[in-house]
Specification:
With 326 residues, the chain is an alpha+beta fold. It has 12 helices and 13 strands. The strands form 3 sheets. Strands 8, 9, 10, 11, 12 and 13 form a 6-stranded antiparallel beta sheet that branches. Strands 4-7-5-6 form a 4-stranded antiparallel beta sheet. A 3-stranded parallel beta sheet has the order 2-1-3, sandwiched between helices. Strand 1, helix 1 and strand 2 form a beta-alpha-beta unit. The two termini are 31 Å apart.
Amino acid sequence: MAVSPHPDLHGPVAIVAGGLSHERAVSLLSGERIQRELQSVGVDAHVVDADQSLLASLRSGGYTAVIPTIHGDIGEDGTLQTVLEMAGVPYTGSPSQACRLAWDKTVGRTLTERAGLKAPPWVALTSSSFKELGSSEVVRFLVEDMSWPLVVKPNRGGSVLGVNGVESVDALVDALMQAFAYGETVLVESFTEGMDVSVAVLDLDGQPRAGVPVGLDYDRTDRFDFVARYDPARVQVNTPAELPEETLAALRTAAETAHTALGMRDLSRVDFLVAPDGDFVVLEVSAIPGMTATSLFPFSVQADGRSFSSVLVSLLQAAVARTSTP
């Protein structure tokens, strides 16, 4: 067993990954990368699958701290964090309440808009509204009231699962059906032409500090789906994003504002769309950013001159310190 050289990490660390959500595969990839990074600096790190034996494994494993790495339900909706809080287990990342706020896109957008940040024009619709109000009438409202083209996405979820751009009524109906497969509520928003940019935020000393804005480039003539999102051959990451310095600075400030507005702790990733004129909108705030080879959070923190492994160790040290403080 490797021995951690860090005095605050005197035992093994559990990286909780997997689970049963649609994002299980991504979660396991994130967990494996975190494990490699921690082991490279001597931390005894173990990936623990989020199944029915999880709590028993955490009790018997003698873990110093937990890194929640479950993408999707349970991990990002605050459920795992609630259980860890009840058990008194140190863990990295945002508290359960903040996770719940960020996981619900309608709530997250409402809070970031209240903080003065812009989102794309959007509406939230439930599947029951189509049944009770008439699907044809609801679709007619969308056609007449929203600026086209549109983007349809599940209210809860990530990794572009269930997300579709639409330019016709027929495509809209199909996209709504796909999005409702992931949950009761969907978001329909007007498409914003621009660059996908993500910013990592760390607040290990109680003060949120945004990392370098990272641009995501891909073939927009191709379907950018779940498979494409995690294929390094189809995704190009630009660090920093190819934007003017004043726009990069504004994005960093906005990311810190969004992080604070949702009550995030330790880390978050804020996603933007930046128009050619430099104007931008906030898409969402992620409490548990992906950590795969094409995930943008590690690129953002490393571009500030910090190694990914040192950031992970700092997050663990902060978690242990919180729990040991009377």
